[in-house]
UniProtKB/TrEMBL annotation:
Pfam families: DUF374
SUPFAM superfamilies, per the entry: Glycerol-3-phosphate (1)-acyltransferase (SSF69593)
UniProt GO molecular function: acyltransferase activity
Protein name as catalogued: Lysophospholipid acyltransferase family protein
Residue span of region Disordered: 225-244
DUF374 domain span: 66-136
Key words, A-Z: Acyltransferase, Transferase
Alphabetical list of InterPro entries matching this protein: DUF374
Length: 244
C-alpha cells in the first residue's frame, strides 16, 4: 500500500473525511425541497422494516429516514466501508460491517456475522438499510435481502431518493450524490413480506418482486425531479422481465 493510501486510510483522516461528508449531506438535505411519495408512506408500514436500495444510492438513502426511527446500515469491511461507517455515525445511523461474498469466502467478507447482527437489530426494533443488488452487478436483486426478510419476519420496503441537482458518477453502480439548492423526491415502494415457510420457488418470485419494485420507485423518483435515471435498465430487459 502506497504512502498516500495509508494516510487516507488512517483513522484520523477517515474520521475527518467522514465528518465532512456527513456535514455536506446534511446541507444537501436542508437545502433541497423534498416531496415524499406516497405522502402517507410511513402510515402504511409498521416499523422496523428492511429498507432496500440499489447500490449507488448509499449517499442519499438516509434522507428518507425519520428522526425518531432507529436505523442500522450494512456497510462493507473495506477501507471505503470504514469511511462510510464514520459518515453514517455522524448521521445518526449505526453501521453493521459485512457484505455478501459472490463466489468468495463468506467468512472473510463477514456475511454470516452481518446477517446475525441484522437479525438482532430488527429484533431490537431497528430499521435495517441495505443494498439489494449483487456485489458488482448493478440492479440485479440478490437473495440475501430476501433471506433476511424470511428469517426476521420483517417486510422489505424499496426506497429511492433523488435530487434534481446532483453528480452522477460513471461507476459500475451509477452512484449519485445530490447537490444543494434543488428539488428532491423520496419514493417508498409497497412492502414486500416474505413468509417464513416460503419454498425456493416463492423466494425467487419475491426476489424478482423486490427487483421490480426497486426499479419502479427509482423511475418514479427521477420522474418527480424531471430527470432521467442513468442506471435504468434497457427497455428490452424490462419488457422481458427481471434478470436472474
Amino acid at each position: 500500500m502506497g504512502l498516500v493510501k495509508r494516510i487516507i486510510r488512517s483513522r484520523a483522516v477517515q474520521e475527518v473525511l467522514g465528518l465532512l461528508v456527513a456535514g455536506y449531506l446534511k446541507l444537501v438535505q436542508r437545502t433541497n425541497r423534498f416531496v415524499m411519495e406516497p405522502a402517507d408512506a410511513y402510515d402504511r408500514i409498521e416499523m422496523p422494516v428492511i429498507a432496500a436500495m440499489w447500490h449507488g444510492q448509499h449517499f442519499m438513502i438516509h434522507f428518507a429516514r425519520r428522526p425518531q426511527d432507529k436505523a442500522a446500515s450494512l456497510v462493507s469491511r473495506s477501507g471505503d466501508g470504514e469511511f462510510n461507517a464514520i459518515a453514517l455515525r455522524h448521521l445518526g445511523v449505526r453501521a453493521i460491517r459485512g457484505s455478501g461474498a459472490r463466489g468468495r469466502d463468506i467468512r472473510k467478507k463477514g456475511g454470516a456475522q452481518a446477517m446475525r447482527a441484522m437479525l438482532r437489530a430488527l429484533g431490537d426494533g431497528e430499521m435495517v438499510v441495505m443494498t439489494a443488488d449483487i456485489p458488482k452487478i448493478s440492479r440485479v436483486c440478490g437473495q440475501g435481502i430476501v433471506t433476511l426478510a424470511q428469517l426476521s419476519g420483517r417486510p422489505i420496503v424499496p426506497v429511492a431518493v433523488v435530487t434534481s441537482r446532483r453528480i452522477d458518477f460513471d461507476s459500475w453502480d451509477k452512484a449519485s450524490i445530490g447537490l444543494p439548492f434543488g428539488r428532491g423526491a423520496m419514493v417508498l415502494g409497497d412492502p414486500v413480506p416474505v413468509p417464513r415457510d416460503a419454498d425456493g420457488e416463492t423466494l425467487e418470485s419475491l426476489r424478482r418482486a423486490v427487483e421490480r419494485e426497486l426499479d419502479r420507485v427509482h423511475a418514479r423518483a427521477y420522474d418527480l425531479v424531471g430527470s432521467k435515471d442513468p442506471g435504468a435498465k434497457p427497455s428490452s430487459v424490462l419488457m422481458g422481465g427481471s434478470r436472474a
